[in-house]
Write a structure and sequence with these properties.
59% helix, citrate synthase activity (chains A, B, C, D), 3 strands, Citrate_synthase (chains A, B, C, D), mainly alpha, 12 helices, citrate synthase (unknown stereospecificity) (chains A, B, C, D), three-stranded antiparallel sheet, Cytochrome p450-Terp, domain 2, homotetramer, Citrate_synth-like_sm_a-sub (chains A, B, C, D), globular
């Protein structure tokens, strides 16, 4: 393919001297002052603006992931800010780099099996197939279980409630609840649908492609990590973390 | 300082098995489903939730920066996605790394001179001092001028209008307009307050510390760059960019 | 685990006011001025200094990956430098983020199947098992094939020759050559061992864990990307790339 | 400028189906197996291969910066690896992002004042001008002073010794030693030339542009950070760091 090919194109946004168009909307007239930041995220992920119910639910998904205190990502952002105080964007970017398979990646995993399932048939049977696939591979079922929050993850339950209130209930939620129940039975544990599982299922309900579902977490944490830069400027933690870690890890030497 | 010091602390968020608290609010009961993603950004940057007027204005600031098409950041995100398709967060983080002094950095520069000015006195004189400082150093005045949008940047004017509608007009806007007017006179050009200047001035009005003002752009672009990953998955541009750039740049050789 | 646990430790390096120790060597007396940068890479990856033959071969692995012109990574580094000229490390880091599964990741894939094979038995049979596994999954065999360099990748052949000259020939190379031959037969194509395959096999011969084998490419490209920052400072390409890409991709609009 | 402009070009590397050329050298015939990784760094930074003496000195510069234990960068790399174990390059890139003004940035600062000085005149007077400039701005003189290593930084002294042994002594070293002496007098402290100052001065002697001098540190730390990924895989520290930091920082809450 070359620049001359009609397939080389972008339909997200374009500008003229007098207007900026974003997914077909005039940025200044139709978006700025009329929609919120979460709505823009929905627009980026689906190509259309959300209905009021979808807006509430999608914003709730992101809000639930903005902040969880001194996570590894927040520690990374703070340590990076210490070394490069002139570069706020580096501190945030460094923190985002840890949003891989261990944490936010499970949003993607959950959204994937929900989207690959047949949703207009026997959901109990679909769930059984999903659980069997992960359990037989001795793999963790994405979106299920939490080290602290059980028997129910309060964030997950809240999100499901909001989806119901918006009249958007769908088989995606029924399916992941059934996956959690059957996985718990298979493993002899209490396994709630956790917040990343709920987000994966609800994102699927909203039509968001599983291949970018973890982007919901990336958007949200970018917002939260800026707050950690600010607190780090005012009450630094990085020098103490460095000192304590270095002393603890090398105390046998030197 | 050590971990034992009372100064080693974070007041952003903490968890118990039953609750997650964020800036003093219960995440599940008070934030999820009640505030939007932009409001969370305001909360991270100021420590408090916005009033309805502040919510509209702050969301507008972020919405205006989410998307501007195939910027250098979007190109970086797409090229990175090509090399590491398994890592959406890397593609977004790479794109954010270009939000330095050339583009979003001017939000910080504008917010800084607005916040360092005396706002309850003679704003014409304050503006003169600001312009003199930059012009005598042969430096660009941050937040002023735009290669395409002139005599007025439509995004800047829209944001100022929203601030007025919310009853939040303040001397910060008067000051930066005066800076633009005087800088234009000094340089013999038409220099509008551009969108980054408007954001710097309005962020100052909202009480956001200039040291994290560019974080507004970082939050916003993180949202937009996820959309570029999605479009790149569906209609790739990176292989063609690679080919065209490599051929053009090395055509004299080999 | 806590900081008090004897398992919380690092044995890479520690300092006293008078000495810095790195993997048991005195940095100033034993390393600086006595070993080269590639030897330090070998030390980091194996915990010991290389023999002269190992030094030649390992340095050659890295040298072969330092530079390949205007790759996607180099373009990313240059675009990032344009947006954040104050932050050389951001430009290099952004470029490294594209070293994922598409390019350097195949070093890891090749090293993995070489290291998981039984090397003291029938290598033809081992190769058949490896090829069967990838072909039946319709997956690309890592380290095999190249769009430009065929029937042989000159960098791969050079590296294998150096290994022989150093008296370090081993079954790892025999195995990957056999994998390439059988994969070519199975797919009816000419598939050379490419440079990433050669590096994966040779790294295995040198005792480098496949889980960090792509680190050889990361070390090497970090060196090369600094050179692209320098050329970009002197003869910029980023503004032209931005303009050409934006115009080509959005020419149907506006 | 457009792709058609003769100014749009890259002279670093280009390929044909049979050869890869790097700064005019045939990669396979002239570089792989003949030069080491540090020599490639010198080539990227100066456009030419080093003499044997320059090779020893430049490799020594990089070797001195590869490893310094559990620095903030190493902690960042380890925390990022914990969240994204599938992405070694992300862990290394995240660690590099902290190589800003606080640490490696001083290489750049030192190289800059050395390169902006007049070196064929009165170096005592040149040094006085440099010290006056920083002291009057109440700024730290880059490359001078160390919290642990004093009165002399052993790495700096070793590097200066190697430069002498290679017959490359020059006014750059005399100047920075004089800067350190005068700065110490002015501030009433013992201020050695530290390792970053020595590297800045020696890089200047070798003809490396100050605008990319911090790249020496970036190259070196990329090598070291891969080793931290490997140790983190084998003996993890990140989960314990997370737990201890979170508990210490939020112990007043919840």
């Amino acid at each position: 393919m070359s620049f001359e090919s009609p397939d080389f194109r972008s339909d997200i946004s374009w500008s003229t001297p007098s207007a900026i168009t974003v997914f077909g909307h005039d940025l200044v007239d139709d978006l700025v002052g009329k929609v919120n930041l979460g709505d823009m995220g929905f627009l980026e992920l689906t190509g259309r603006l959300p209905t009021p119910g979808e807006s509430t639910v999608f914003n709730a998904l992101t809000v639930s992931l903005v902040e969880h205190g001194l996570t590894p990502s927040a520690i990374v952002t703070r340590m990076t800010r210490y070394g490069a105080p002139e570069s706020l964007q580096s501190a945030v970017a460094a923190g985002l780099l840890g949003l891989g398979s261990t944490f936010v990646g499970s949003v993607e995993g959950a959204a994937r099996y929900v989207q690959e399932a047949t949703l207009d048939g026997d959901l109990t049977k679909e769930a059984a197939g999903i659980v069997e696939k992960f359990v037989s591979a001795k793999a963790i079922v994405p979106g299920i279980g939490h080290p602290i929050h059980k028997p129910l993850d309060p964030r997950a339950e809240r999100l499901f409630g909001l989806l119901d209130e918006a009249g958007l209930r769908g088989p995606q939620v029924t399916l992941i609840r059934e996956v959690a129940r059957q996985a718990g039975d298979a493993l002899g544990k209490v396994l709630p649908v956790n917040v990343t599982g709920a987000i994966g299922a609800i994102a699927s309900r909203l039509g968001i492609d599983w291949r970018v579902a973890r982007g919901i977490g990336v958007m949200a944490r970018a917002v939260g990590l800026v707050g950690h830069v600010l607190e780090e400027i005012r009450t630094p933690t990085a020098p103490a973390i460095w000192r304590e870690v270095d002393e603890a890890a090398t105390r046998h030497h030197g």
